[in-house]
Design goal:
single chain, alpha/beta, Immunoglobulin-like, eight-stranded parallel beta barrel, seven-stranded antiparallel beta sheet, 14 helices, 35 strands, about 20% helix, about 25% strand, globular
Length: about 675
């Protein structure tokens, strides 16, 4: 079969669902697909049922009635009515004499059936795009968003690693099994676990949470980025009701929730011929994994079950290639594929009260797709009365010209500033790399272009210092600084990030002094490869997890500590940013002194009554030496001023500073009172 994209659903060739089945709660017989080489002697199906909490409800063996249908088999069994979110694992068995039945095929006989009301087709999802809230008590009302997001600090997290629920952990059937000792397996974090830790995030001063993808994933997708079912919540993370409960609880605490979504790729599901880049084999029903490999699930919704939906292997350009060489790449340039992917986003907007999307891997999808997507999402937001719904893009490009082109033409509200992050990361190649990183961060804070990065900050970008794909910043500081000095360097960096001119994004664990790093290793086949397991630590206690370089989790404090110095610094700075619009709202930043290592920055914005709201920052970015402030520079300050202490969150009236100790970042607040042309300091 060729891989031309069908122009309409009627022309779509959809294969029978194999090991991953989704069906609505019902007492009608369920048709199960069997391996095409199934013997005539099949006798029974052994079934294990888990209720929505993950508890084994019952086990049973059911006599099997089967028939040959074309080249494949079908089995029909009458199942009792099961409640929503029940999962069923079943085995095929053949008689072996002496009253014994053995699994068929040996060792690889397990299949899954999910009882869920999640739509199995995009047509079903489209019928749910307009929500009658009088009949949908489970969907919380959207939070009334402010006119801007800039005053809020974003917090990005991996659901599986952030919070294990205090309640008994359900163990539902899922393609990926919880194993806390394996760094590449799920560790038990969930939507309920995150909901139980919302007060921790409020204490940290967070304004918006960026939640990793919640789609049902394949066996390798503990992180959420290998989606299988675009319309279903991963069972081990929870249910749609759990997602809505999380959003409702977050809105009660004035927290926004942003959902990470994927429109570029899905989990591997096609067997390709490496010589011809055609599906294998040539027969119509053999090219999808799941049609040939009965242990492999097929993608959902069912409209995705065609090789024509995906680009074949081989590099054409960054928008038409399999990500990491194995994830199936959607033909996003095709209108039919585009409509499926866009409508799945509209479905999540209609079924939840989320406040925004973070779009993954934006540069691997053509701009034309994004023009249609962002406009459709904006239209759905208007329909749902969410005019400030945020569309945040992740474009991991090096060049500002590339990210600017996507930001403008793609219609995004905000974009993660990868070029600026990479300019910070590039400092690690210098001998005194910590000093270079700190100076680069200070230049960013002061809105000063440098030889390494000659672009002024803009409020359409969001700044971050690490994420799930990069080494943590503290690991870089600890390479050439003592433990104590490295922590103070991290605090200096956090001042520059949170009080900087662009929206700040924290990666979970930074406030707990996580210091994991990415690196290389040699596989069993002798191939050098990269790893990221040490930057995806558990926030909860898990001493079991080890890998080839030692323990994954090396906590510096008790779990979710709110008393350590870094947590207190972040908490104070986020509140200062939120309460002082001069820091972020159309602020002017003047830099009258940049005599290294001293930098003085004056921030002004508007009027507070008849006063100009004003703040002055004086900083010493040297990690080793104190620095004296000369008389000319001191003239910028009044004799007495309020100096903010982020660890206590308070300002104290003090004499203006004369010198600064290493890695000092002093925030001086004052108002210039202007009456009849005369200015005085108070």
């Amino acid at each position: 079969m060729n891989h031309r994209v069908p122009s309409s659903p009627r022309q779509m060739t959809c294969l029978s669902i194999a090991s991953g089945q989704w069906t609505a709660p019902s007492e009608r017989p369920v048709v199960l697909s069997l391996p095409h080489d199934c013997p005539d002697s099949l006798a029974t199906i052994s079934i294990e049922v888990r209720d929505p909490s993950g508890r084994v409800d019952h086990r049973n063996e059911i006599p099997l009635w089967s028939r040959k249908h074309g080249r494949s088999w079908e089995a029909s069994i009458a199942l009792p009515g099961f409640p929503e979110n029940t999962s069923i694992r079943y085995w095929l068995r053949i008689p072996k004499g002496n009253g014994h039945n053995l699994p068929y095929p040996p060792g690889q006989s397990t299949r899954l059936l999910f009882i869920t009301s999640a739509p199995i087709s995009i047509c079903e999802a489209r019928a749910l795009l307009t929500v009658d809230r009088s009949c949908s008590a489970q969907i919380p009302e959207p939070l009334s968003c402010p006119n801007v997001w800039s005053g809020r600090t974003f917090y990005s997290l991996l659901l599986d690693r952030f919070g294990c629920s205090d309640q008994p952990v359900p163990q539902p059937h899922s393609f990926s099994k919880i194993d806390k000792s394996d760094p590449h397996a799920p560790h038990g974090g969930s939507l309920s676990g995150l909901r139980e830790r919302l007060d921790y995030l409020v204490g940290l001063g967070i304004g918006a949470i960026i939640v990793s993808p919640i789609y049902l994933n394949d066996a390798t997708g503990y992180h959420g980025y290998h989606p299988l079912h675009l319309l279903m919540v991963e069972p081990r993370l929870g249910t749609l009701d759990d997602l809505n409960a999380l959003i409702l609880a977050a809105h009660d605490r004035d927290l926004f929730v942003i959902l990470d979504v994927i429109t570029n790729h899905c989990a591997p599901c096609v067997q390709w011929n490496s010589d011809s880049n055609q599906p294998l084999p040539a027969e119509a029903e053999g090219y999808m994994l799941g049609a040939m490999d009965y242990t492999a699930p097929l993608p959902m919704p069912i409209e995705l079950q065609s090789s024509g939906i995906f680009h074949p292997p081989g590099y054409e350009d960054q928008c038409r290639t399999r990500l990491f060489g194995f994830l199936e790449d959607y033909r996003t340039e095709d209108p039919y594929v585009r409509s499926i992917l866009i409508d799945h986003l509209r479905y999540w907007m209609a079924q939840t009260a989320i406040d925004g999307f973070r779009y993954d891997a934006v540069r691997h999808v053509d701009i034309e797709f994004w023009k249609h997507c962002t406009e459709a999402v904006r239209g759905q937001a208007r329909l749902l009365r969410r005019p400030h719904f945020l569309q945040l893009a992740e474009h991991a490009g090096h060049e500002r010209a590339d990210t600017d082109s996507y930001l403008t033409a793609g219609g995004f509200d905000l974009m993660l500033d990868y070029p600026r992050f990479l300019s910070f990361a590039g400092c690690t190649r210098y001998r005194n790399h910590s000093l270079e990183i700190l100076r680069a961060l200070m230049d960013y804070f002061a809105c000063q272009p440098t030889t390494r990065f000659q672009h002024y900050p803009t409020q359409r970008y969001a700044t971050f210092l690490d994420n799930q794909d990069t080494s943590r910043l503290l690991s870089a500081f600890r390479r050439d600084l003592s433990l104590d000095t490295a922590q103070r360097a991290l605090h200096f960096a956090l001042h520059c990030l949170i009080l900087g001119p662009q929206s700040p994004v924290l990666y979970y664990g930074m406030e707990q002094d996580f210091d994991g790093a990415c690196g290389d290793y040699v596989t069993e086949q002798g191939v050098r490869s990269g790893h990221d397991v040490y930057v995806r630590e558990d926030m909860f206690e898990n001493p079991q997890c080890h890998w080839m370089f030692g323990r994954i989790n090396r906590p510096q404090h008790s779990q979710y500590s709110q008393t350590n110095a870094t947590f207190r610094v972040v908490s104070g700075l986020t509140r200062l940013r939120r309460s002082h619009s001069a820091i972020w709202e159309s602020a002017e930043r003047f830099c009258p002194v940049t005599k290294a290592p001293i930098t003085i920055v004056e921030i002004r914005h508007g009027y507070h009554g008849d006063r100009i709201q004003r703040a002055v920052v004086v900083a010493n970015s040297d990690p080793y030496e104190s620095a004296h402030i000369d008389e000319r520079s001191r003239a910028i300050f009044p004799e007495y001023c309020y100096i903010f202490d982020p660890t206590s969150g308070t300002s104290e009236l003090r004499v203006s500073p004369v010198s600064l100790s290493p890695l000092s970042f002093m925030i001086v607040t004052a108002y210039d009172l202007t009456v009849n042309g005369v200015t005085s300091h108070v």
